[in-house]
Structure formats: structure tokens, C-alpha cells
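User: Second chain of the day. Same drill as before.
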Amino acid sequence: MGQALVSEVYALNLFCLALFLWALFTARPCWLVGFFLGLSITIHLTSLLMLPLAVVGCGWRQGRPLAVGLVVGLLPFLLLPLFAQSSSPVRWGEPNTWHGWWWLVSAQLYRPNLFAVTPALLLSRLREWAILLPNQFLWLGVFFAALGLAKFPIPKSDFQQVENGTRTNADKRGLPITAHRSPITDHRLPITVVLTIALYLLYALGYNTPDAVLYTLPVLLLAAMFLGLGLRPLRQWALLLPLLLLLLNFRGQDLRQGVRVRPSAESLLQTAPSDALLISSDSGTTFALWYFHHVEGQRPDVTVVDSNLFAFNWHRRHLAEQYPMLFVPMADDLPAFYEQNGVARPLCFAQLMPEDEPAFRLECEERLGD
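Assistant: Same format as last time:
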């Protein structure tokens, strides 16, 4: 689960989801629960799958403060049009228009991937993930997580009733229960947690991308909550399990020992001819070259274009604005783009292959005008 270290998406999403769970299972106001859930949704839309847990955890009586907090947490979406006004060379979509904003916020680009896996791929994932996911905690951790799940239901006798229908105190054998939960929801909460885990698993299993397993990270977060309950009787000895996991997995998560993208990208850029038009059909290559080109300022004379993004009208408009000397057709016409621009500058097809030798592929065509 090395992708949990990707700070701009998955780690940040897990952090906000952890804050949401903390607010839900401790005596925090429901508006705060909704706020953290809203922030989580702005980072990754799959956090919407936590909404039933928030509703059951807070209860219908607290629906209004929960909704208010949720709306406030979603406000960062309104900043997208402002950010789109910048002169950044890398922009995703056109959130400065209503249609473009909704296209981006609702993740319309990725809808075809929903529940689009073949039966063969589904069976393959079931076999692989049945081993991969438990290994994240070791089988010893799975045992303690199951023990924590068994302890999770909260007997009603462990609470005090107050006149306004709220509850106080905490279950001495399990998680503290918030003062904002209604009496009808106590027995439903553990069931809703398990159903939330099931929703995430169904979503990830049916999502048709090679890295779909990343969408199970919130499942591990929820399982870790049960794990903490199961380890409670061990007290300080419970720290041995995460320490053991750290020792066993640190080398695999140490990015210094991983793929060397920088040497690969720098070598490709150094090899490219002057004023080259670098065409990439791989997102990993495109994003890496964009970083070294735009952020570090390497090879300011070249132009990096992604052939897949070229299909989007908004991307072609961005190209035309950013590079007025390029011929950018109004329609999705890559051959015309190559032909017209290949007259004045070298046309090169680029791909980074950090794990191979050589670490990149660069195929350049002679200028069509020569």
C-alpha cells in the first residue's frame, strides 16, 4: 500500500477521514463530523460512502448540524474557479465555467470505469485481494481486528439517558460514544461500519483501473479502528504490532530505494533535440516531464504534449493559450497537429521506463519541411 504515502491525494484523504471518525466516535458536535466528512469528499469523492455512517452515528435529530457542517466542508469546491484564473501551465479541466466546474467536481471523466470489470478480472481481484488486504495487518492483526469487531456493539446499560434524548459516558470496553447519538442508532452503528466497508470493497472491486486496490485504503482505516479495540487489553504491549509492521515494511515503502524517475526524466530531456515537441501517451511520463519542465525549469525550449489529453476540448484550448506559436486544431485531430507543427520543429515520441535499461525511449522524426 505504498500509494498511501502519496500526500496530495490518498494520505490527505485518509487524514481527513481519520478526523471524521475521531469526531464521530468521540464526544464532538455533529457539525464537526459533517465538516471533516465534507473536506474528505473534496479530496476524493469515494468519501461519500461514509455518509450513511455519519447519519447513523449522529442520528436524525442532529441531521441539521450535520448537514451544515457538511456544506461548510464542501466549500473548497467553490475555490476551483478562482484557481482556474491563474496562469499555471498545468490545469485540469475548465472549472471557471459552470459546465467545466461540474465536470470536474462530479468526476465525469472516470464514470465509465464504474462497475466495468470483466468477470475474469473480478475473480482475479478477489483471489489477489483476499491475500493482499489481510497482509497489511499481518494475520495476527486480523485476529485482533476481529476481536475488536466482536467488542464493538455498545450495550445500552453502559449509557446514561438524559432528558433531551442524548447520551453521555462511554463504553468502558470499547470506543467512547458521542453525546449526540440518538437511542435508536446505538445498535445500528457497528452494522453500518461493516456495511461501509462492504461498500468500499464493492466499489473498488468493480472499478476498472489497474490501481483500483487503492480505493480499499479507507477499508484499512476502518479495520484499524477495530484493531485498536482488539489490542486494548494488551495495553503498552499493543505497540509491538505497528512496530513490527514498520520493521517488516519500511524498506518496501522507502522511496529512496524505489524507482529512479529523476535520472530517467533528466536523461530524456537532455537527449531531446532543441525546440522539440515531446509527445507522451503515458500519464506517468507526462506528469514527470511536466514537473521537471515547468517546476524545475529544465529544457524551457521543448514542449510536452499528452496525446491522450489532446482529445479534450479544454486541453486543446489550454495548449493554444500557453503556446500561441503552436498550431492547435479546434477538433481532436492529432495527425494534423503533428503535420503542421512538425514542419518547424522536431517531433519526438517520449516514454519514461525507469525500471528498464535504457531508462527512456525517445523516437524523433525529421522535420517534415526538410
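Residues 1-73+114-258 form one domain.

User: Great, on to the next one.
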